[in-house]
Amino acid sequence: MPAFVLDDPTPIDPRRRWDTLDLGSRGACYDNTAGVPDSATQVAARNAASAAYRAAHPVGLDIPFAAGSRTAFDLYPAADPQAPCLVFVHGGYWQRNAKADFACLAEGPNAAGWSVAMPGYTLAPEASLADIAAEIDTALHWLAEHGPANGIGGPRVLAGWSAGAQLAALHLGHRAVAASLAISGVYDLAPIRETYLNEKLGLTDDEIATLSPLRLPVTPKPMTLAYGSRELAALVHDARNLHALRSAAHAPGVLLPVPGADHFSILDGFRRPDGILVRAAQALLEGTR
Predict the structure, then answer these.
(1) What GO molecular function terms would the record report (predicted)?
(2) Tell me, what's the pLDDT at 79?
(3) How far is CA 125 from CA 21, 197, 199, in A?
(4) Number of helices and strands (H, E) in the chain?
(5) 42, 68, 185, 244: which has the highest count of C-beta atoms within 10 A?
(6) Model confidence pTM above 0.70
(7) What is the CATH number of the domain that holds 137?
(8) Segment 237-274, tens digit of pLDDT
């Protein structure tokens, strides 16, 4: 009897033939904007919803945690100061977007009784990726020390999307973090250096070695790795590869494919209290008790 073989609809990772790809083809492996035909419409709708949410929750915005113009928190505390907190790190390949563009993602966790904290960070090329990572570390220290005075004193799940997922995965070991929810991320930086994205990043050998979650020792705290079924293949395989690495080390956490979601629509899972990403954050915290 022939062995049962699971049919995997995910395209083969294009990086398996990386040496045969020209610069444009390499860049296409990571170009989420081009990979989602209605990305501009989705982003515009998200930004408008975020502006409305910030306007409706003006207290706790732009609280500095460091000296930079972007190094500040937007805080959306729950009624209970000891409620769990989702710390959300935005994406944009470390060189675009801002925390304010993602305010609407606090809607679901807030409605579920969670606090939300969104740190900003300096963008490349003004800051190197090592600098950005250090800013997130500073932000987490600040939140642990000053969060209670701002109504946020509960356990923290560190979440991030796209480039923010790399930062969330990188800081899972921080003492202020109970668990991590990494969404649609890039976890090996080496190929990035050989694409258009590196023009502003200027990645070094040391940054690739020390800031790529796939190249680091596994942190034995819970982590959920989420991705949309319609993501670019490189991002799908990065999530699967990191989950496999963690599973081999018996680290807790699940792989969460979101059916029908693309790189942008996956964030809709934060817009309702019963959204798939809100439930994923809740499950992570339950796993730490």
Answers:
(1) hydrolase activity
(2) 97
(3) 26, 11, 8
(4) 10, 8
(5) 185
(6) yes
(7) 3.40.50.1820
(8) 999 999 999 999 999 999 999 999 999 999 999 999 99
Position 222 in a domain:
yes
The encoded tokens of residue 181 equal 């929810």
Low-confidence ranges of the chain (pLDDT < 50): 1-5
pLDDT value of position 289: 59
State residue 2's pLDDT score.
45
* DSSP-assigned beta bridge partners for residue 118: 74
Q: Minimal CA–CA distance to 139: which of 240, 41, 66?
A: 66
Domain count, the chain: 1
Instruction: For 111-164, give the secondary structure using H, E and C.
Output: HCCCEEEEECCCCCCCCCHHHHHHHHHHHHHHHHHHCHHHCCCCCEEEEEECHH
C-alpha 69/C-alpha 170 separation (Å) is 23
**By residue range, what is the domain housing residue 215?**
18-286
As a whole number of angstroms, the distance between CA 76 and CA 143 comes to 13
User: Residue 21, Cα to own-chain centre: how many angstroms?
Assistant: 27
In the prediction, which pLDDT does 11 show?
81
Give the amino acid at 19: D
How many angstroms separate the CA atoms of 106 and 245, rounded? 31
Place of tokens 């990035």: 192
